[in-house]
Request: fold
Amino acid sequence: MNGGGGGGGGAGAAAAASAVREGYLAGKVAVVTGGRGGIGTAVCARFAAEGAAVYATGLSGPAAGADAGAGTEAGAGAETNAGTGAAAHAGAGNDAGAGAAADAGIGTDAGAGAGAAAHAAPAPVAGHVVFHRHDVTSEESTVALMARVSREHGRLDVLVNAAGIEIEKTVEHTSLEEWNRIFAVNVTGTFLTSKHALPLMRRAGGGSIINFGSYDGFIADPNLAAYCATKGAVHALTRAMACDHGPDNIRVNAICPGYVDTPMLKSFFDAKGDAEAASMREEARLVHPLRRYGTPEDMANLVNWLAGDEARYATGQLWVLDGGISAQVQQMRI
Reply:
């Protein structure tokens, strides 16, 4: 359950900058979809702290022209973002059960954010994040995003497909519209953004694509049928892309979170009602072998490693990052 939203990026990123290897991503250009969500925010902050020039994309963000140095920008907005685990995790930020079409890249924005007027912010430079309005379900919007990256930097080194949404229903109670919507964001969004990023990565001599799967792509939580199906699809797509594009020195991996402490996770528990929320949150925490939830920064640490050259031999892998919860027989209520 990773969910997403909030802000935690800015001040924490600046403080953490001294603790990370300076310049691990220096000279690299990165795009992070769902970049205003809980996990996306942390990823953008970490990338900027490591010296990358970062485009954070989504359907909502700061006012035109806003920019952020060393990850400060990432911090604010709550939105859809990542893709992950158990019930509210999944995919993407705030969107999860809340119906936020906000950052996952859904909605009718499609080409709306594609025009130059929508992207008045200056090009990102090393150590900075800029927001780009982008609907991951729209090919027009995605082409416009990559055209901007090409125009401003001429290359792309890292793509993080962190936009996603969640629907908490069984198959029987999921409408066809809901089914198509979650696949459009979680699967088609990953496909479209990767498709149009590949030529820019090839131009750069290689690159790293990091998708967000979920531990729910391996095992299933109740009432997440459509979500689980999308994450299984992302896992398969990740491996297929790794095989296809490895000869171009383009690595493709997926991070598969479990429960991540974000506003999306809070929304999941809150939906259970006041009487149950606190007890279920504690019960879920204690079932983890590490006795804690993951944090957006935990996810960003692994994303950061996969983005850089230390992971140059890592591709086609599904990296489960769930605090050990999938390693044991579960004994809790969901």
